[in-house]
Amino acid sequence: MQKTEDKREFVEGYYGKAAQQPREDLCCPTSYPTEDIGHIPQKVIDRFYGCGSPMSLAGIKEGEAVVDLGSGAGIDCFIAAKKTGSSGKVIGVDMTDDMLKVANESKSEVSSNLGYENVEFRKGFLEEIPIDNKSVDLITSNCVINLSPDKRKVFREMIRVLKDHGRIVISDIISSQKIPQSIRDNEQLLGECIAGALTEEQFLSYLEQVGFYGIEVLSKTYWKSIENIDFCSITVRAYKFEKTAGCVFIGQHALYHGPFKVIIDEEGHVFPRNQAIEVCTDTAQKLSEVPYKGMFTILEPDQTTNEVSCCSPSATNGNGSSCC
User: Fold this and answer.
1) How far, in Å, CA of 308 to CA of 324, rounded?
2) Do both 227 and 261 map to the same domain?
3) Does the pLDDT of residue 306 top 90, yes or no?
């Protein structure tokens, strides 16, 4: 089972059956707080096959546009619908007709319980998200990226549909080491979210490679071991930041406040604590936004470091830079 089409066909059939007949043992089921799911039909809850709780960690705000990839029977979309309020918009994307059928059948009951309707479901693939460019504040997914035959393309598609400063909060399965071919070729383990898992290093590096910033592991939980390989559920948050046409140095400096002695960002910039480091306009803007906001002071060209610290203006750190 090497071809993308073969894998898609298998996964669609596998989860189509799980839509028709709920399976408690599928993937590594987790649970949501009662207050998040009280408005959702039981048949949707019974068909929840995630490995994390991205909606609980996403910090959803009223009015946001949210897309849930691999939305299944719709539980995460319906949770998001309550959090975004009537002014928000939630779109679920899934390739499995049987799952979409359950989700669409449940929309009217959810809308009645909430008092408004703000959810729609679309058929599509993770690698070809049926969403307009730069139209979404938040993308979530719950234990589906491991099922994709082209994970880099999934992450590139996420970047495409996110607005500038948009974010992803995604839960998935990762492995403690590279998975041998014997496991990768096992169809049952593919359906159970094992055979397609990346290592944590691969998962995070793929996000960096496509251009995500501020990557943070929000939670990590052990699930099971197979052939001496540990598998964990991980939830990750990352942000999109659109660079301008060119990186220009105009005399801006970034002052990192701590608590760490030194940090390195995704582009390799090194920021020792309380030392002013010259940065380009792009980096200055990036560090002024979440998730970095509050960690740095951006000094404009007409500012001096002694305006924000008690250092002597003439003090240096030994390489010509200000001690601040």
Assistant:
1) 9
2) no
3) no
